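Table 4 source record.
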Amino acid sequence: MDMLNSIQTPNELLEYMSQNIIYGFIGKNGKKYTDMFSEEWNDWYSECFVQNGEEVLESKIGTCWDQVEFERLWFEKKGYTIHTFFMWFEVNKENNYPTHTFLIYESNDKYYWFENAFEAERGIHEFNSLDEAIECVKAKQVAYVKNNVPNTSLEDLEKLVVYVYSKPAYHLGVEEYLEHVTSINYVND
């Protein structure tokens, strides 16, 4: 926790995360999974659990789901107003479309998308409204899927849904986590 106390600004947090937190997950078996192109990554659904912020600080590994919990810990500790979101493509077929979670914080009447896990978009992005920020993240997710997931249909790309969610319970598995983060649909004002 001393490390967390030494980080004073969102920029310092981003720098710390980009240098110290790697993308991956911790399995219920205690194993660290970091190669998403490996055969063992297929254990994700049965093995993955969502870490809390302190655990990510300790393990130095996490998916976007975990990294948002680390971000939540820091931003709440520093007194920021934050919003956490989950997005996925709601298609009624088996697919490999990625999900994404992200945090937006408020400061000086602006909204900031704080991003570490989605490496192509890593940074702190400023917006005038929450809706503007969310629309930007959605557009980036659609572009990523369009360019990186083979056989993506335009119809599927239109089915990206965003949910707002609260801090999840301790150590949720994939199914329980998805249930938690998809309970409140985000509706633009």
